[in-house]
Amino acid sequence: MLLSKTTVDVRYAETDQMGVVYHANYLVWFEIGRTVYIEDLGFQYAQMEQDGVLSPVTEAHVHYKKPLRYPDRATISTWVAAYNGVKVHYHYEIHNEKGELCLTGSTVHVCVDKDTFRPLSLKKHFPQWHAAYEQHKKQEC
């Protein structure tokens, strides 16, 4: 299983009136982690889009454990928890600088044709990407 890690600095603008990271920003951080994961596999999401394929989020789950505040530094860990050739389940953990778990979450994505939004098989359209997910996933969807 491939586990990608990247860090982000909490910016003041990402906090709410209570001084903690506003909840919607974690979804942006998930995207940062997912992009790094894909790059660690040797692929570029932008290239997939240029090839006429999109990967929209169909589900998102976030479990808050401990607040992050400005100017904390957060580490985002990302991995593929499940994959079935069409649907990809990414999981995330976000820790603070002390290594404390602040958040867990997941997103589910399906590859679709850019024009029709009809689901596509990664195995057929991106066989190398499919093989990498098969090698690094934890389980079937």
Task: List the keywords.
five-stranded antiparallel β-sheet, HotDog_dom_sf, 7 strands, alpha+beta, 141 residues, hydrolase, 34% strand, single chain, Thiol Ester Dehydrase, Chain A, two-stranded antiparallel sheet
Describe this structure as you would to a colleague.
With 141 residues, the chain is α+β, with helices and mostly antiparallel strands. It has one domain: Hotdog Thioesterase (Thiol Ester Dehydrase, Chain A). Helices cover 26% and strands 34% of the residues. The protein is built from 4 helices and 7 strands. Strands 1-4-5-6-3 form a 5-stranded antiparallel sheet. Strands 2-7 form a two-stranded antiparallel sheet.
Structure at a glance:
It is built from 4 helices and 7 strands; from the N terminus they run βααββββββαα. The protein has 141 residues and is α+β, with helices and mostly antiparallel strands. The chain has a single domain, classed as Roll (Thiol Ester Dehydrase, Chain A).
Q: Number of folding domains?
A: 1
Q: How large is the count of helical segments? A: 4
- Unreliable spans: none
Q: Helical proportion?
A: 25-40%
Any idea of the CATH class?
Answer: Alpha Beta
Radius of gyration: 16 Å
Q: Describe the largest sheet.
A: 5 strands, antiparallel
CATH superfamily: Hotdog Thioesterase
CATH fold annotation: Thiol Ester Dehydrase, Chain A
Kindly estimate the percentage of residues that lie in beta strands according to DSSP.
Answer: 25-35%
- Counting DSSP E segments of at least 2 residues, the number of strands comes to 7
Strand order of the largest sheet: 1-4-5-6-3
Pfam families: 4HBT_2 (PF13279)
Family: Belongs to the 4-hydroxybenzoyl-CoA thioesterase family.
Keywords: Hydrolase
Organism: Fictibacillus macauensis ZFHKF-1
